């Protein structure tokens, strides 16, 4: 099995829709640190699991300097962002999304 890991930093804003009162319901931004993990039993024709540039492009074009509420059709929590990325990057099996120091959400496919 081959594995690759790509770390990407983005800046983006969101506000959460919650079932309780929270300051996170107000518009706010983060400097997010996203780590994308991909794997494959065989390398593609280019000798790669997934091109690092393709991973970066998908994440940056979708989220960097964006209002994430306009991107996702679900509540834009770190958990939902991680799942969206995992579902849209080739061979991805796990994503961690750090929205601030000490606050990290991880999504991993079964």
What would you say this structure looks like, in words?
This protein has 110 residues and is α+β, with helices and mostly antiparallel strands. 21% of the residues lie in helices and 37% in strands. It has helices at residues 52-63, 78-88; strands spanning 2-14, 28-40, 92-100, 103-108. It has a 4-stranded antiparallel beta sheet with strand order 1-2-3-4, covered by helices on one side. The chain is elongated and about 50 Å long.
Annotate the secondary structure layout.
Layout: E1 2-14, E2 28-40, H1 52-63, H2 78-88, E3 92-100, E4 103-108
Antiparallel strand pairs: 1-2, 2-3, 3-4
Helix content: 10-25%
Series of secondary-structure elements, N-terminal to C-terminal:
EEHHEE
- Overall spatial form: elongated
Structural class: alpha+beta
In which order are the strands of the major sheet placed?
Answer: 1-2-3-4
Q: For the record, give the distance between the C-alpha atoms at the N and C termini, rounded to a whole number.
A: 17 Å
| Biggest sheet statistics | 4 strands, antiparallel
How many DSSP helices? 2
Cα-atom Rg, whole angstroms? 15 Å
Q: Using DSSP, what is the number of strands?
A: 4
Residue windows where pLDDT falls under 50 for at least 5 positions = none
Mean pLDDT: 97
Strand content: 35-45%
Key terms:
110 residues, four-stranded antiparallel beta sheet, elongated
Can you describe this structure in just a few lines?
Helices cover 21% and strands 37% of the residues.
């Amino acid at each position: 099995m081959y594995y690759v890991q790509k770390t990407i930093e983005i800046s983006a804003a969101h506000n959460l829709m919650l079932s309780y009162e929270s300051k996170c319901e107000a518009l706010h931004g983060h400097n997010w640190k996203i780590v994308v993990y991909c794997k494959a039993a065989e390398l593609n024709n280019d000798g790669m699991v997934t091109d690092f540039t393709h991973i970066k492009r998908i994440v940056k074009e979708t989220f960097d300097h964006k209002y994430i509420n306009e991107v996702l059709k679900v509540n834009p929590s770190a958990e939902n962002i991680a799942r969206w990325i995992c579902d849209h990057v080739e061979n991805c099996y796990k994503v961690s999304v750090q929205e601030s120091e000490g606050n990290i959400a991880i999504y991993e496919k079964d």
